[in-house]
Please model this.
Amino acid sequence: MKTYLFAATICLAVMGATSGQSAAAAYPDRPITMTVPFPAGGGVDVVGRLYTNEITQRTGAVIVIDNKAGSGGIIGVGAAARAKPDGYQFVMGSPGNISIAPSAYKSLSYNPAKDLTPVAMGVQIPLLLVTRPDAPFGSVPELVRYGKEHPGKLSYASGGTGTSQHLSGAMFVQMSGLDAQHIPYKGTSPALTDLMGGRVDFAFLDTSAVSNIKAGKIKLLAVTSAKRSALFPDTPTVAEGGVAGYEALNWYGFFAPAGTPAESVNWLYQQIKTAQGDQGLAEKFKAQTMEIPPAMDPAGFAKFVAADTAKWKQLIKSLGLKLD
Model:
C-alpha cells in the first residue's frame, strides 16, 4: 500500500511539473495589446502592423494594435508606461516621446528610463539634409562655407520646435559653427512647401520627402546616419561632409512597462529578431524607406536609448529649450 502511495505521489509530482512547463510554454495564452501612440496609417503604425502581422502568421499569437494618438506620441506612451506589467502590454516609441521628451518638456507624466523596459528596435531611418532647388550650394561643405561667408542669412525649416527635425538642424548648426535661424512650422508639409518655394534655405526632413527629391523640387545633400544608408548608397553622410561626429537617427522601437516579466520581454524580442531575418519583411520596410537596424538585444537597445537620450539632453540644455 505504501509503495502504491509513493508511486502515485511521484506520478502526480511529475504530472504537476509537466503541466507547469506546458503552462509556461503556452505564453501568450491571450491577446497581447500593442499600443501605437500615433494615428493609423502613419509610419509608426505601419511598422507596428508589419511586425505584428508577421509574428501572428508565424506563431499564431494574437496581437491587437491600439492606436492611442496625441501630443507626438506622449499620450500613448504615457498610458502604456502606467499599464499593468503583466506581459500582455507593449508600446512603440520613437525619439520624440522617448529620447527627447524628458528634457524638452517642463512636465512629463512618465520617465522612460524608469517606467519603460526597452525590448527591441524595429526600424531606423536617416533624416535627409535637403535644400531649396535654387540654393547656391550643392554639398555640405559648400553649405557651411556659404553660411560662414553670409552670417545670419541662412534659415532652416522644421515640422515644429522640439521635433527631431528641429533638433537635428540645431545640432548641425551648432557643430558646423553656422549662424542660421530656425523657422518652425506646424508639421512637415508646410515646411516642405516653403522649402520648395525658396522661402527657407535648408531643412532636415524625413524620408517622405523622397518623391520631391526625385522630382527635382528640392536637392538632397546628405543623410544624417553615421554611415551611408543602404536606402541612399550614393549620398554622403553629414559627417563625410566635414561635420565630424554628426549623427542623428529616427527610429521606432518596442517597449514594455517596467516590471514586465523577463520571459515576456524576451519572447517579443525573439519574435522581432526572427522577423528581421525575413527578406520579404525587409523589402516591405525598404519600400517604406526604412531599414532593419543592426542586431540589438534588449540590453543593447537600452544602451542605445540611454545614449540617444543623453545626446539630445545635452543639446536641449544648450538651446535652453522648454516646451509646455
Summary: Residues 1-24 have pLDDT under 50 and may be disordered. The longest strand covers residues 116-126. The chain has twelve helices and ten strands. The CA atoms of residues 183 and 312 lie 19 Å apart.
